[in-house]
Amino acid sequence: MESRLIKTHLPVQLVPPSFWEENVKIVYVARNAKDCLVSYYYFHKMNKGLPDPGTWDNFFSSFLSGDLLWGSWFDHVIGWWKAVDKHRILYVFYEDLMEDPKREVIKVMKFLGKDLSDDVVERIVDHTTFKAMRENPIANYRSFPNAIMDQTISPFMRKGIVGDWKNHFSVAQNMIFDEEYKKRLEGSDLTFRTEL
Fold first, then answer.
1. Is 44 a catalytic residue?
2. Backbone torsions φ then ψ of 149, nearest 5 degrees
3. Could you report the per-residue pLDDT of 78-100, keeping only the tens digit for each?
4. Shortest CA distance to 157 belongs to which of 149, 165, 167, 148?
């Protein structure tokens, strides 16, 4: 049987119906909203194909309202979370990947029905660390011209840490964000960690 890999940022409702008809396996990786907001802000700053993000304050508001490309973070993560019960989806948390990459690689391996040796698992873990990917020209997009992705503004692979939001959020923004987060995730058992 032929295997294919497709990487996308599509929300669940925009995934082609053939995904569900063919009963494909999907690995969905979700990152906590606060760090996602920071990462997305810098991505908007360096990616010349996206609208200028404006000030941090403006981008913060746009993120909370979902007025960005790919829509609302809240709708995105909740939509995929609800689909887990109906389809073959492994929901992986970025924070878990950072905390224990080997555990998460093994989880993905089992979900995909693969039986890999410990040596291969270790090599996968080594090649998928943030540091290794940051140095890998296939993963870091450094071959793209600055007219497309200006990495003099911000590298594509910037920090990759959990908790960088603390360097960007004001106390007031954190309170506003927490209030909106609580409201938007109310009734869901979906939980994210914002620090390790």
1. no
2. -130, 105
3. 999 999 999 999 999 999 999 99
4. 149
**Which position among 9, 76, 127, 168 bears the catalytic label?**
9
User: Which domains are present in the chain?
Assistant: 23-164 (3.40.50.300)
Q: For residue 34, what are the contacts with CB-CB under 8 A and spacing of at least 6?
A: 165, 169, 177, 194
C-alpha 134: how far from chain center = 16
CA distance 97 to 95: 5
Apex 12 CA angle, 103 and 10, nearest 5? 85
pTM: 0.91
Burial of 13 (0-12, 13-18, 19+ CB in 10 A): exposed
Q: Is 102 within 8 Å of 121 (Cβ atoms)? A: yes
pLDDT tens-digit series, residues 61-76: 999 999 998 899 999 9
Looking at the DSSP assignment, which residues form a beta bridge with residue 26?
89
